[in-house]
């Protein structure tokens, strides 16, 4: 163990550690779970990318010696490449980025000193003086959050689109398979399974576009605000230079937050320091996507119920041998997964609401839960929707015979009789069909209301699910219509 000192005292640090005393102290102060930033390499990568951009900017403006800048950049690149993956023991529950910022500063400084002098320490490069130059945890960490969320949203959008496209393919596959529509869990009118999956596709597509519209917001951040927005401690030229380097380092454009109509200069930076309502909007959209998935999962749950006593019109693929000890029973694991994802994301949405309201005065200090929740929500949708698409949606089959029989036996088909002969006649046909266990078509033929050749077409459930075909039928058989 080595003993390190700072203004607060002395603490032992493991000899082989690249982190230092501030990391040890923060890890102890927030030791409430076993989860640390070692589990979040994508976050550490983003912090290191910001540090690299800052070092390059400080070198360009003449504030940092080229030799030190080069060593810092090399250390950052090694972190980005995952070389020091076990050197970030700060707990995921932490203050507003201070702990993880200093953790990364210390690892970079120790590695940069090692590059320059052959040993760890801060003789050549200091974590605060050099690595954290022109920065504050209060602008570094929000910048890293924006980078992480931009990447995760982009990946999640691909998975949502994949899920969406899978629903579209299934809609095309089942476009001619009729079924009985149901409202309030009661028999309604005929439609097709293609229309069901098509509606689900539309639901997912609409919400995917909402998430897509949020993506550009995460290309803006408050880097350069330093502590509260004023840029105090920032050297001349840094703010004008750092975003050029940051965009190059992360691989996509990043720019400083700016409002079109500002009552004071840099009001967006002060706003960004004080408020984190962006998490409410992000979580709201993620909740909408998750609830859309949950809705689909719940419907699949009902459609596949049975196999004998439920609706049983959809047959889910068996995702694992021995998934049920009962013959013929396939547990709806994938639909359940969509429901569980929805439930978890709803809880993260509540967390985002709480953190916005629990910040105070000049710093939104409680973004920890929002950020962790947003990351988990994005990961759940990213992985979960793709998994359900591959292991459930693609393999869905329909019990077409049962679905058609259910549709043909519905008393709702008396609507066609009502349209031709009035509501009282239609009601009579419906009641008679129900009481005698017959179809409306059979009763209409028995009553001599409709010629057999007309009945075959007029009660064709596939045609009745088609708006144009139904209108064409009414035009074709308008001579039969007798409404007083």
How confident overall, as mean pLDDT? 93
Order of helical and strand elements: EEHHHHHHEEHEHEHHEHHEHHHHHHH
Strand sequence of the main sheet, in spatial order?
A: 1-2
Distance between the termini: 99 Å
Number of strands: 8
Can you give the helix content as a percent range? 55-70%
Secondary-structure class? mainly alpha
Discrete helix count = 19
Main sheet, how many strands, which sense, barrel?
2 strands, antiparallel
Portion in beta strands: 5-15%
In a few lines, what is going on in this structure?
The protein is mainly alpha-helical and 484 residues long. Helices cover 59% and strands 6% of the residues. The chain has 19 helices and 8 strands.
Q: What do you see in this structure?
A:
- This protein has 484 residues and is mainly α.
- 59% of the residues lie in helices and 6% in strands.
- The chain has helices spanning 21-29, 41-60, 66-80, 98-117, 127-131, 137-173, 193-214, 238-250, 267-274, 278-303, 333-358, 368-391, 400-408, 414-421, 423-436, 440-446, 452-458, 461-464, 467-476; strands at 2-6, 9-13, 178-183, 186-192, 220-221, 255-256, 314-315, 397-398.
- The strands form four sheets. The chain has a two-stranded antiparallel ribbon with strand order 1-2. A two-stranded antiparallel sheet has the order 3-4.
- Strand 3 and strand 4 (186-192) form a beta hairpin.
- Helix 2 crosses helix 6, helix 4 (98-117) packs across helix 6 (137-173) and helix 6 runs antiparallel to helix 7 (193-214).
- The protein is elongated and about 100 Å long.
């Amino acid at each position: 163990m080595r003993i390190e000192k700072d203004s607060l005292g002395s603490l032992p640090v493991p000899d082989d550690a690249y982190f230092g005393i501030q990391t040890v102290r923060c890890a102890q102060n927030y030791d409430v779970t076993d989860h640390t930033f070692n589990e979040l390499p994508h976050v550490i990568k983003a912090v290191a990318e910001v540090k690299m951009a800052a070092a390059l900017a400080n070198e360009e403006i003449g504030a940092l010696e080229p030799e030190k800048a080069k060593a810092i950049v090399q250390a950052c690149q090694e972190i980005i490449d995952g070389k020091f993956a076990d050197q970030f023991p700060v707990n995921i529950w932490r203050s507003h980025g201070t702990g993880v910022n200093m953790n990364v500063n210390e690892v970079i400084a120790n590695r940069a000193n090692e590059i320059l002098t052959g040993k760890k320490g801060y003789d050549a490069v200091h974590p605060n003086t050099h690595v954290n130059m022109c920065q504050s945890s209060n602008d570094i960490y929000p910048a890293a959050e924006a980078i992480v969320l931009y990447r995760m949203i982009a990946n999640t959008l691909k998975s949502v689109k994949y899920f969406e496209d899978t629903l579209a393919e299934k809609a095309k596959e089942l476009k001619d398979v009729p079924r009985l529509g149901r409202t309030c869990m009661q028999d309604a009118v005929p439609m097709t399974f293609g229309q069901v999956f098509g509606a689900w596709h539309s639901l997912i597509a609409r919400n995917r576009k909402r998430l897509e519209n949020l993506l550009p917001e995460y290309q803006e951040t408050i880097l350069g605000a330093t502590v509260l927005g004023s840029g105090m401690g920032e050297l001349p030229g840094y703010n004008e230079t750092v975003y050029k380097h940051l965009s190059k380092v992360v691989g996509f454009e990043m720019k400083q937050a700016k409002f079109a109509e500002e009552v004071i200069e840099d009001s967006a930076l002060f706003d960004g320091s004080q408020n984190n309502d962006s998490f409410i909007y992000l979580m709201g959209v993620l909740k909408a996507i998750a609830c859309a998935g949950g809705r689909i999962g719940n419907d699949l749950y009902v459609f596949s119920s049975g196999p004998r006593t439920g609706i049983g019109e959809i047959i889910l693929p068996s995702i694992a041998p021995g998934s049920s000890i009962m013959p013929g029973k396939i547990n709806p694991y994938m639909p359940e997964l969509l429901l569980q994802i929805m439930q978890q994301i709803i809880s993260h949405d509540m967390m985002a609401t709480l953190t916005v309201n629990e910040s105070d005065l000049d710093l939104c200090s409680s973004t920890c839960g929002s950020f962790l929740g947003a990351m988990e929500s994005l990961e759940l949708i990213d992985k979960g929707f793709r998994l359900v698409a591959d292991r459930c949606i693609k393999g869905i089959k329909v019990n077409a015979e049962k679905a058609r029989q259910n549709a043909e036996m519905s008393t709702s088909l008396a609507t066609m009789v009502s349209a031709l002969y009035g509501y009282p006649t239609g009601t009579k046909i419906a009641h008679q069909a129900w009481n005698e266990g017959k179809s409306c078509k059979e009763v209409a033929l028995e009553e001599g209301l409709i010629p057999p050749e007309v009945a075959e077409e007029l009660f064709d459930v596939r045609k009745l699910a088609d708006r144009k075909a139904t209108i064409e039928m009414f035009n074709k058989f308008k001579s039969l219509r007798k409404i007083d």
